[in-house]
Amino acid sequence: MRKAAILAIAALALAGATPSLAAPQKGLKSPHAGVLCDHYLCADKAGISRELTTRYLGRAAARKLFSQGDFDATRFTFDNGVFCDTSERSCYKDRYFDSNGKRGPVDPKATAALFGKP
C-alpha cells in the first residue's frame, strides 16, 4: 500500500510538471536594428558576434559562448529553435530539412530583423 501511495504521488508530481514543459518557446529580441539575441548569443547579418553578445548579454555570456571551441558562427540556431544561415540571408522556423531535402519554412520576422527586408 505504501509503495502504491508513493507511486501515485510521483505520478501527480509528474503530471503537474507537464504543462511547464509545454510552455511556449522563448522569443528573440532585437535590441538594435540588424541584431537578434536570445538568452545565449547575439548575431547580426555576418553571424554570431562576440562584440554584440558582450554588449547586450554581458561579458560572462560572451566568454561562455566563445569558450566552447571553434564553431561556424555563420550558421546558428537560437534557443527558440529558429535557424539562421548568413550565406542564404535567411532564418527558418527550424534547422531541419524535409523528405525532399528542402529547408523548412522561412521565419519572416527573424529574417527581416537580421537581414532587413528583401
Provide an overview of this structure:
With 118 residues, the protein is of the alpha+beta class. The chain has one domain. Helix content is 37%, strand content 14%. It is built from four helices and six strands. The strands form two sheets. Strands 1-2-3 form a three-stranded antiparallel beta sheet. Strand 2 and strand 3 form a beta hairpin. Helix 2 runs antiparallel to helix 3. The longest helix is centred in the first third of the chain and has 20 residues.
Characteristics of this structure?
3-stranded antiparallel sheet; YcgJ family protein; signal; disordered N terminus; 4 helices; alpha+beta; Uncharacterised_YcgJ; 14% strand; 118 residues
List the helices and strands and how they pair.
Blueprint (H helix, E strand, L loop, with lengths): L1 H20 L14 E2 L4 E3 L2 E2 L1 H8 L1 H8 L8 E3 L5 E3 L4 E3 L15 H8 L3
Antiparallel strand pairs: 1-2, 2-3, 4-5, 5-6
Helix pairs in contact: 2-3
Regions with little confidence, pLDDT below 50 for 5+ residues: 3-25
Percentage of residues in strands: 5-15%
Overall shape: it is globular
Radius of gyration, rounded?
A: 19 Å
Structural classification: alpha+beta
Give the rounded overall mean pLDDT.
Answer: 83
Helix content: 25-40%
Cα end-to-end separation: 66 Å
What is the makeup of the main sheet? Answer: 3 strands, antiparallel
Return the string of H and E elements: HEEEHHEEEH
The tally of structural domains comes to: 1
Please provide the count of β strands. Answer: 6
Numbering strands along the chain, what is their spatial order in the largest sheet? 1-2-3
How many helical elements?
4
